[in-house]
Amino acid sequence: MRLIGVVGSGSTTVYAPLLVYENHESLAKEEQLVIINDKKRFIKYLGVLRRVHRYEPFLDPRKRTSYVDNPTLVDHGVMPHTSAWITLIGSIQNKMLSDVQLPPNPGSYVYVIESPEDLDLRISVKESIVVGKHKYSGIEIPLDVSAIPLHTVVVGATGTGKSRLVKALVDEIINKTNYSVIIFDHTGMDYVPYYEGHTVQASKIVLDPLLITDLILERTDLERRTYEPYVLTATLAYMIQTCKYPESSTELQQSSLSSFMKNTQDRYVSQQRDLFEQLGEVDTEKLMQKAAAMGMRWDKDEFKDLISKTVSYMRGKESARLRLSIAFDIRLGNSFFDMLSERTTLPRAVVSKVLKEKLVVVDLSSEDILVRKYIVSAIISELWKIIESKREVINVVAVVDEAHNYACRFCGEPHKAISRVAREGRKWGFGLVLATQRMIDIDPEIRGNINTVFFSKLQTPSDFNEISAYMDLGGLTEASLAVLSKREFFVAGLMNTLRVPILLKVREVPSPGTTT
Prior knowledge:
The protein is α/β, with parallel strands linked by helices. The protein has 3 domains: 2-120, Elongation Factor Tu (Ef-tu), domain 3 (Beta Barrel), CATH 2.40.30; 149-204 and 346-484, Rossmann fold (3-Layer(aba) Sandwich); 209-340, no CATH class. The chain is 36% helix and 20% strand. The chain is built from 16 helices and 19 strands. It has a 10-stranded mixed β-sheet, sandwiched between helices. Strands 1-2-5-4-3-7 form a 6-stranded antiparallel barrel. Helix 11 packs across helix 12 (369-390) and helix 12 (369-390) packs parallel to helix 13 (413-424). The radius of gyration is 31 Å and the shape is elongated. It starts with a strand and ends in a 10-residue tail after the last strand.
């Protein structure tokens, strides 16, 4: 710990000006931790350096001096000096951190903290985790575990190391707390390689009839109002026929559905009503369980034939039947139905797995964006079902990678699911960790419930403005972020035990398959 200067005039309980000792100017780096020793009051303060500036009294750009007319005067001598502002973190009393009640006295010595041995401080927190150290001093910064269910966001431009920070955070949560973690890996590249033994492939998760209908309509680009009744009816009927569900009822198979398959036109109105009534009585959840148990396969030709009969049965136009047939061949093909086939995992099974094993990674990379959104919302909904049935804390953290694809205002079902967790999850120990490149794309309703932010270089100035609009950044400016290197993040909010944003160097995460 070395002396770097003295406190200048004009200090407050929030900031203190620093006049830097010229011989130790190189130690006065922005984000360096410092100790202020107020000998007159016998008080020590902990602070962090910000807004370091270099001045010269005669070269003030706001004043006209003789240097303007004779610039060579600088060769005869100048008197530059460095000043900075110290953002006060707290006062140190009995090795504990407490609130600042008095401004530091001008003339108090300021010392730079160069190593963990320079600071003997105990952070008053019941449980803590650590994802990195302060960049310059090497001091481990404890993060408050009690803030986990109060939701966290990790923001940074591509290449800043967001996934490495999230992995370090997940490892700490799993190893040091009683929380379980489910990770939705958008690309399948950031987390799956590290947790292969805990990975669930999204391509194995059973899809419900409504989603399958939406997928068909989106990929074929057919007008929803006209074609949705045909596609939905055929989808549900195909699943019932293939799964032979319900097993106890042969009436459905032998009467209405049988006539439907044979395209019988007699007594059209009563048969159609009978068919729809029985389709509506089917327990879709049990139907999906049956599809999962048998690893149901989808056949393009069979489904194409069935939907053709559906159009005829529902008295649709021949042009509609022809358009569906062409769209299935050109825009869907066998690959689409292969994608629907052999799905054996229910969303409920994924939830059971995470509660049992403490960690599950869902690899979303192989799926259409509609399917990805469905899986995120379906699994979160299953977690809420457990909460609603048991009415007890579940201690689960949902990590959503590339969260701007799921938590934006127009993201549909996953937005609703994530919004509910953001609003109500803290009561049930249900927390969020959202990793994103664009803070501004996260819906304001969700942003307003985020209480911890890790942030590095940002994509646009608007992202910094969004963060600073609802969280005190302790004098940080956007320029402070521009010089950050990979794996360097500020932490602000309730998880930060030092109260003001602190610069962390996230610990190195070894490549998959290697050891530290």
